[in-house]
Prior knowledge:
By secondary structure, this protein is of the alpha+beta class. The chain has two domains: 135 residues, no CATH class; 349 residues, Rossmann fold. The chain has twelve helices and 29 strands. Strands 12, 13, 14, 15, 17, 19, 20 and 25 form an eight-stranded mixed beta sheet that branches. It has a four-stranded antiparallel beta sheet with strand order 4-5-3-9, sandwiched between helices. The relative contact order is 0.15.
Amino acid sequence: MSSERVVIKGSERPAPNASPLGPADPDDVAVVSVYLKRPEAAEPGSLSVIGRAALQHQREQAMTAPAQTVEDFAKTYQLNIVERDLVRRLIRLSGRVKDLESAFGTKLQRFQHASGPFRGRSGALSAPAEVADAVEAVLGLDQRRVATPKSIRLDLAAAPGAHLPNAITRLYGFPATPGLGQGECIAIIELGGGVSDADTKRAFAAMNLSPPEVIAISVGAGSNAPGEDPDADGEVALDVQVAGAGASGARLAVYFAPNTDQGFVDAISQAVHDSAHGPSVMSISWGSAEDTWTAQAVAAMTSAFQDAAQVGVSVFAASGDGLATDGQTGAMAHVDFPASSPWVVGCGGTRLQASGSVLVGETVWNSHGGGTGGGISALFTPPEYQSAVKLPPSANKGAPPGRGVPDVASDADPDTGYQVVVGGEVQAIGGTSAAAPLWSGLFALINQARARPVGQPHAVLYANPSAFHDVVSGDNRSNGIGYSAGPGWDACTGLGSPKGSVVAGLFG
C-alpha cells in the first residue's frame, strides 16, 4: 500500500462551537462507518427502478475490490472489521481512538455543548492514496448533533383549529384505496425519542381506524426510548400518526438512530436496503441548514438517496420550520438538507382553512415565530425536472442558480395542524415534519395499486401542476429575508398541496 497520504475529499470539519474538555481517551473504542464511492454517476430522474436483488448483484461485483482495499488498510492499523455490506457500500470498523487517529490522520477531542458532551474533531481526514480514492465518507469519528426535528407543539386549547390527522387526509381527497396501503411499508427515520403503543392505540381509536403495525428498528446505538426526550417523542408520534392516518394498512418501520451524521446516513442506508421489511416510501422529518454539513456526509446521504431511486423508494423530507433563514443567525437565507437533495421530495408547509369536510383555501405557513423553509440551494444545481418552472434568484445576493426547495407542501401550521397523542396527552402539533409523513402515506396508497413502486416521482409531479392546490398568498420571510408565494411553483410551498386522488391517478 502506498505510503503517500492524501486528504479524503469532503472530510474537512470546522472546530465545534462547544467548550473543549481535552483529548479523547486514546484507549476508548469507537466505531466508524466507511462508505465507498458509488461505482456509477447519476443525474436526478435518470435511474430506473431495478429492485433490491438486482442492485445487490451489481454491487457484489463492483464493490469487492475497493472493499478489500479498505479492509487491508484497516488491518494495518489494528482496526476490526465489524460489518461488510457491499450493497450499502459500507465497511464498519472499530478500534481504539489512538489507532483510528493514526489511520485517518486526525486528533479527537472531547467537547461540552448545551445538548451534552461529545467527541469531535476539526480539519480534514487523510489516508493512503488508493484508500482515499475508494472512500466517499468516514463517519463516526465526530459525534456532534447534526439535525433538529421540524415540529412545533401547542396545548390543544390554544389551537382549536387543529384536526384529527385523517380529517386532513380527507380534506386533501386521499383516495379510498381498499386496504389503506396494505402490503406496503413506510420507513420513518428518527434521531431520538420513541413510540408508545398506548399513544398509537389511543390516537387511531380517535380516528376510528385500526392502528398500523409499528416496527421499531435500532440503528447503531439508537433505540426506541419513549420518555427520555419528550420533544423527540412528539416528533415520533406525529410521524407515526400522520403517516398511518393516510395509510393505516401499511406497516410503519421506524428506524431509531443516534443524532450524528453517522447515525443519520446509516439509518437511511439501512432503510433503503432493508429487504426484510421492504419499504417503498421513506419519511424524514429531521435536518439542518446546508452549510452545517460536511461535504462527505452530503455525498454519502446523496448516494443513499440514489440507491433509493434504484430500489423504488420514494423519499419525502421536511423543508424546515425556520422560514427562509432555516433558523440560522445572520442576514443570509438557507435551505434545509436533506430536503434540498434533488433526489428527495422536499415538503413545505401551509396554513389551511376548512369548512366542515371541505378545503376552502391555504396560505403559506408563517406563525408562532416559525414557518415553512424554502428557497434556493447552495449545494445543488437546478435539476432537469425543474427546467419548466421559473426559479427565483437566491435571496443571497450574487449566489448562483440552484435547486428550488420545496417541491410540494401540505398543512403544517400548528393552529390548523394535527391532534396528536404523545405521552398520554392530546396536543396540537404542526411543522413541516407533518408534511413529510402525510405525503408518504399518500404514496403508500399509490404503490399498493401498482405492480412496481414509483421510486423517484419528481418528473411526473412537475409535469402535472393541475394535480395540486396552488398556494398563492403568504411568504416565508424572516427579518426581511425570504420569498413570497405566487401562481405556479414558489419557494414557499413548491407546486402546492395535494389533490390526493388526482395525484394518485398520475401514477395509475
